[in-house]
Amino acid sequence: EAGVTQSPTHLIKTRGQQATLRCSPISGHTSVYWYQQALGLGLQFLLWYDEGEERNRGNFPPRFSGRQFPNYSSELNVNALELEDSALYLCASTLEPRPYGYTFGSGTRLTVV
Amino acid sequence: GENVEQHPSTLSVQEGDSAVIKCTYSDSASNYFPWYKQELGKGPQLIIDIRSNVGEKKDQRIAVTLNKTAKHFSLHITETQPEDSAVYFCAASTQGGSEKLVFGKGMKLTVNP
After folding, report:
1. Which of B43, B91, B100 sits opposite A48 (nearest CB)?
2. DSSP conformation letters of B10-36
3. Is the peptide bond before A8 cis (omega within 30 degrees of 0)?
4. Read out DSSP for B41-88?
5. Is B7 part of the contact surface with chain A (CB cutoff 8 Å)?
6. Cβ contact (<8 Å) for A42 and B105?
7. Radius of gyration for chain B, computed over Cα atoms and rounded to the nearest angstrom
8. Whose CA is closest to B21, among B32, B10, B29?
9. Residues in CB range of B41: below 8 A, 6 or more apart
10. Is there a contact between A105 and A23 (Cβ–Cβ < 8 Å)?
11. CA atoms within 13 Å, Cβ hemisphere of A69
């Protein structure tokens, strides 16, 4: 069984640009959670999608947005990139709309220069 | 808001020693407490979890204890091995329709051969 896959693995963008990160959940999983892992800050909750709908978002500005497609894959968009957006962005999926047993992908390393 | 505190932030032990990581949480409604291990360049991997109706759970060399009254939980690793070296995160679930995991800031464990 394939795990959670994220692409690209690395992304380098210039300040002010937009970044798009992608996530494919485990087959059969309908919920996707996005987290930001900045150095020294642990994992900060960004967004939760389930059945195509945004269910919850964390304390991040509106320039962080995303969506979930009918096949349950998801993308995270970050507009007007700032230097402090540099981080590892992790996607996790779950079988049910509950935060039990997250399976994480390996993440996308976003560097803003 | 919900908060999870984790300590220590780093721990170095000799191979064969035991390691203990402690976490406290703020949301008394939390009912699910997982632990994740993150190796360099990888996403966090679930290693053990415990629900609020259980006080202790073991899986080979790892065990987790939960004290709901005091709102703290701990991870115990016995007979540590060099491959246990990683960053460990504790987390607690939130409730009330905005369900997600709130993570501690992580602890870097180094096991010296």
Report:
1. B100
2. EEEEETT--EEEEEEES-TT--EEEEE
3. yes
4. TS--EEEEEEETT-SEEEETTEEEEEETTTTEEEEEE-S--GGG-EEE
5. no
6. yes
7. 14
8. B10
9. A106
10. yes
11. 9
Using a CB-CB cut-off of 8 Å, the residues of chain B touching A57 are none
Ranking A16-20, A56-60, A98-102 by mean pLDDT, the lowest is: A98-102
Q: How confident is the model at residue B96 (pLDDT cuts 50, 70, 90)?
A: low
* Residues A41-95: tens digit of each pLDDT: 789 999 999 999 999 999 999 999 999 999 999 999 999 999 999 999 999 999 9
Classify the C-alpha dihedral A58-A31-B30-B107 as positive or negative. Answer: negative
Q: Is A72 helix (H, G, I), strand (E, B) or coil?
A: coil
d(C-alpha A43, C-alpha A88), whole Å? 9
Question: Hey, which residues 54-93 in chain A have their CB within 8 Å of chain B?
Answer: 55-56, 58-59, 90, 92
Q: Which of the four pLDDT bands, split at 50, 70 and 90, describes residue B38?
A: very high
The continuous run of DSSP H or E covering A88 comes out as: strand A87-94
Report the residue count for chain A: 113
pLDDT tens track for A24-40? 999 999 999 999 999 87
Closest CA to A77 of A68, B15, A97: A68
Count of A–B CB contacts within 8 Å? 61
